[in-house]
Design brief:
alpha+beta; Cytochrome p450; four-stranded mixed β-sheet; three-stranded antiparallel β-sheet; 11 strands; 52% helix; disordered N terminus; binds protoporphyrin IX containing FE; Cyt_P450_E_grp-I; monooxygenase
């Protein structure tokens, strides 16, 4: 199990001490800029050269024509209702984004009943909005999440918290998992899960007549991602990749599936007014049921580790451990906050990673020449049969390019939200404080002006030719940007890089005749619209049999 160097020996007194970290509200403001650069993996110099400083309304001269929201184009409520409820727009949010961008331009408004959303579908405007964020940006209205937590007496985690609560937790977690070198300590844990993934591929292949096909690879990657992220968050293995999955894990998977399969329900759970719940009870009931299942699972695992630590300390033993141990011992967050954070991180970390892995393998299968290039790079860099670690990934730019390019073509979060905390002028429009913004990442990722031949799969477009070369950043920011960006980015990347390296080392990944052209659909996240079936053919065997 990975060990954090600075807390290998901790006394019981320290363990019982109260929250240490109450002054971070101020500190984080100064960390804000570097956190933003860090999240994008860019240097300070690059960040400074990025375009578009935020313009405040008072800075705009009287001569400048500032338009109001009334002047902004966009579909009306009726056409939105038809699009979403009649034509199942919830499954095509990414396509609607592109259509609206074409029809209404780079910034447009949509009305959903009383709610107004301003969509920003331009790289520079997205940069402008995100670079001007304050210390605690707000992503979206999380009232339904908060209501559930209040009802059950639970805390909020990073996704659902706002303001000072969020800032305090973010500051704690940021120091533990935001930098690549922080998560490098998890290499061995993740590699243990990759071993099981490979064994599972062997086992699944034998169940098919061609002895090569794995049906619905997303099911496999879902289990891999869950096992991987839980190994880091709970410091234990769940057995997701075993033939017989333990009952508790199965229950958790069911709760997670309920959360996503009832995505529309959960949208409605937030949208349906409380007074309508007695008449339409199902969305809210399912919403609560899935959260109950998710929390229950986390509480069991956190409590198990807590008891182990207590027992070790009472026996006077040294306590060693990873992320959870650190959180439980330092108590920078309360135990309730720890429950909430591991629950929300697991929720955020499974489908995102598994869809990206499924798309990456699908794209590799469709582009054998790219797969060949990446395999060549791996062979050149690693000894035959070597197991790659986090350190090796820095010498494998094409593997990093593969993940970036996959997320450009299929950003799991095709759009992201912000509620403006100041009055802004964006694209010539005055946008009052408190407006809901939708940042259209899917559309900017596929814009010709941001990426040449945008529909082509070219992992090498992400390789810098020299130190002065800069690959565009804000056109594709699949993990978000800035202080509220994805906290699990480095964990996700580690899991994806190590799995993909090993899969490419071991197998030729090929399309199965059962797989047609797979289109994306939106189901909360951007996911494959149909199951992806792939063949995993041994490279060694293949090499022996080839002339
Ligand atoms: C391919 C994998 C992933 C992608 C593409 C992804 C993407 C994102 C995006 C776009 C956001 C919103 C950022 C913003 O609003 O600016 C986000 C937030 C978040 N992600 Fe991820 N994510 C991934 C994996 C993970 C993993 C593995 C974890 C946990 C281990 C995780 C935990 C979170 C959390 C807790 C937040 C909320 C952060 C906050 O509000 O402070 N994500 N993610």
């Amino acid at each position: 199990m990975a060990v954090f160097n600075n807390f290998t020996k901790i006394c019981w007194k320290n363990f019982q001490s109260d929250q240490l970290n109450k002054q971070l509200f101020y500190v984080v403001r100064s960390l804000h800029k570097s956190a933003a650069s860090e999240a994008l993996g860019i240097s300070a110099t690059e960040e400074e050269t990025m375009p578009n400083r935020m313009i405040k309304p008072e800075e705009v001269s009287e001569k400048t024509q500032i338009k109001t929201l009334n002047d902004m184009p966009g579909p009306n409520t009726l056409s939105n209702l038809i699009e979403f409820f009649w034509k199942d727009g919830f499954g095509r949010i990414h396509e609607i984004q592109m259509e609206h961008r074409k029809k209404y331009g780079k910034i447009f408004k949509s009305r959903f009943g009383p709610q107004l959303v301003v969509s920003v579908a331009d790289r520079d405007m997205v940069a402008q909005v995100l670079r001007a964020e304050g210390v605690a940006p707000q992503r979206a209205n999380m009232d339904s999440w908060k209501e559930y937590r209040d009802m059950r007496g639970r805390a909020t985690g990073l996704i659902s918290a706002e303001g000072e609560d969020w800032l305090k937790m973010r500051s704690v977690l940021r120091q533990l998992i935001m930098r690549p070198r922080d998560v490098a300590v998890f290499s061995d844990d993740v590699n243990g899960v990759v071993d099981d993934l490979i064994q599972r591929v062997y086992s699944l292949r034998t169940q098919q007549p061609d002895r090569a096909t794995v049906l619905n690879v997303n099911d496999l990657f879902f289990k891999y991602a869950m096992e991987g992220v839980a190994a880091i968050l709970y410091e234990c293995r769940l057995g997701c990749l075993e033939n017989n999955i333990p009952q508790k894990t199965q229950d958790y998977i069911a709760a997670l599936n309920l959360m996503f399969s009832s995505f529309k329900m959960t949208m409605y759970a937030g949208a349906i007014p409380k007074w309508l719940r007695p008449i339409i009870p199902k969305p809210w009931e399912e919403f609560c049921l899935s959260w109950d299942g998710l929390f229950k699972f986390s509480i069991v695992h956190v409590n198990k580790r807590l008891s182990e630590i207590k027992a070790q300390l009472e026996r006077g033993e040294e306590v060693k451990g990873g992320l959870l141990t650190h959180m439980l011992i330092t108590r920078e967050m309360s135990v309730e906050e720890i429950y909430a954070n591991v629950t929300e991180m697991l929720l955020a970390g499974v489908d995102t990673t598994s869809f990206t892995l499924s798309w990456a393998c699908y794209l590799l299968a469709r582009h054998p020449h790219v797969q060949h290039q990446i395999h060549k790079e791996i062979k050149k860099t690693l000894e035959p049969g070597a197991v790659a670690t986090a350190e090796d990934v820095s010498n494998l730019p094409l593997i990093r390019g593969l993940v970036k390019e996959t997320l450009r073509l299929f950003p799991v979060l095709p759009g992201n939200g912000r509620i403006t905390q100041d009055d802004l002028v964006v694209g010539g429009y005055f946008i009052p404080k408190g407006t809901q913004l939708a940042l259209c990442h899917y559309s900017t990722s596929l814009e010709e002006e941001n990426f040449l031949e945008p529909l082509d799969f070219q992992p090498d477009r992400w390789i810098r030719k020299d130190t002065t070369d800069r690959v565009d950043n804000f056109g594709s920011i699949p993990f978000g940007y800035g202080i509220r960006s994805c906290i699990g980015r480095r964990i996700a990347e580690l899991e994806m890089h190590l799995a993909l390296i090993r899969l490419i080392q071991k197998f030729h990944i090929c399309l199965s005749p059962l797989t047609a052209d797979i289109k994306a659909k939106t189901h909360g996240l951007l996911c494959p619209g149909a199951p992806i079936h792939l063949q995993f053919i041994d490279r060694e065997v293949d090499a022996l049999s080839s002339p």
